Amino acid sequence: MENEDNLSDEFRVHVVIPSKPSPILEKRIVFKVYKRRWFILFVLCLLNCSNSMLWLTFAPVADQSAQFMGVTLDQINWLSIIYMVVAIPLSFGTTWMLDTLGLRITLVLGSWLNMLGAVLRFVSVLGSLVSAAKFPVVMGGQTLCALAQPLVIFTPTKLAALWFPEHQRATANMIASMSNPLGILVASIFSPMIVGTTNNISSLLFIYAVPAAIICFLATVGIRDSSPPTPPSASAESSTSEPFLEGIMLLLRNKAYMILLLCFGSGIAVFTCFSTLLEQIMCVRGYPNDFAGLCGGLFIVFGIVGAGFLGLYVDKTKKFIEATKVNMSFSASGFSVLYFMKIAVAVVCSLFGFFGFSIYPVAMELSVECSYPVGEATSAGLIFISGQIQSVIYILLLQGLTKPMADSPFSTCSAGDASLSWRVPMLVMAGLCSAFTCCFVIFFHTEYRRLDAEAQAIGKKPTLTACQTVTSQTLTTRQTPTTSQTDNTQDSDQKEEQASG
């Protein structure tokens, strides 16, 4: 590409590569980062935001949507659950596509599926269709949007690894990942505002279809390459070094990764249940849809703020494990008291979002660190699949545990079958959240494999995790060379340098 150097920043690292013929072989490599990485990140953020808006379009207005389409609340919930059902089998193909076919094909395909699904949903509410056909057509459009979700949501970790340098990866992953909850925030606040009455469902679907079409155009025309001409870091050169199936087998044998897969997947499931069922839980206790949307919005806003601080902190300190464990502990504590806090519900939702929601991008980076050199899309994608599988199980379980309420004087639910008691389901979900958090805090330990590989490539000491520091200090004390040994080593190094000269 012409004048590419004018559109990039470059930095030099001193890489020492050992070889048998010469003990001291030095090679200077120039890493470049290209400004168009920010455009690709921008398009991914818009696409991620749009897809999540389409996911939870109906959840904040479940009662009105059920009346408009002439279906039950359980059927409306399936408009959200279909995302998880479709994502489970498709995710394996998506991880292969990202690591094999590349970033551009994946993003363009995802943008087209997202746009077609949004348009089909709007077509369903036009006057030419009979009432009985509305829900099936909406479900068809929602299914197309669900097909796009894994193509979009797996991409932030891969984009950060291919286009961003080591000191910007966590921040780039945070920005791209947090655009997904930003879309949920838009849906939580604007869906109740736009709908008002059931006659405005058609306006709601049209408003959400317009940005999907614009984003599809930007992705198709604007994204030209899957990776930059030159890598931004040492690990980017080997980003797809492990074949897909071999990478899967390596992950299944990685104890630390399997703990993260199970425990953080449970956290994703709790968030999904919270976002999908919040309006139904709140209306039984007398809260209007607007307040439920506000609580969902506060949850997302504070989660994005927390992710911003945490991403910058982790980029500087590289304390992925400590940050994840501390935040998971606080979020589990906040969720455990959520159902019983009648006055400060909005405050608890804000704290739950600040500590719980903010760990998603950090955990995705941690999955890459503990599984390197497996491809980023594979390691992050399996965790998302785990979250989707557990989400389906949790939602079906929680719905099965609800009981009809004989008397609900404070209920503001519109639908006749919406007066259900959520006390037992909320207690079960809090228990699951606390149990998996304790499991993660106690049993998860790992090395930062990608950071260590990059450190060795440029001749630096490996990055130590907190649990390795004491051991390394002990080994250092035992293996400290004597003064004479140090002098002999320095003399031999000088002789080798003179010989190579």
UniProtKB/TrEMBL annotation:
Keywords: Membrane, Transmembrane, Transmembrane helix. Residues 475-501 are annotated as: Disordered. One of its GO terms (molecular function) is transmembrane transporter activity. Signal peptide: none annotated. Gene3D superfamilies: MFS general substrate transporter like domains. SUPFAM superfamilies: MFS general substrate transporter. InterPro entries: FLVCR1-2_SLC49-like (IPR049680), MFS (IPR011701), MFS_trans_sf (IPR036259). It is a multi-pass membrane protein. Residues 475-491 have a biased composition (Low complexity). The chain crosses the membrane at residues 38-58, 78-98, 105-123, 175-195, 201-223, 257-279, 291-314, 335-360, 380-401, 422-444. Residues 492-501 have a biased composition (Basic and acidic residues). It is found in: Membrane. This is Major facilitator superfamily (MFS) profile domain-containing protein. It comes from Oncorhynchus tshawytscha. The lineage of its organism: Eukaryota, Metazoa, Chordata, Craniata, Vertebrata.
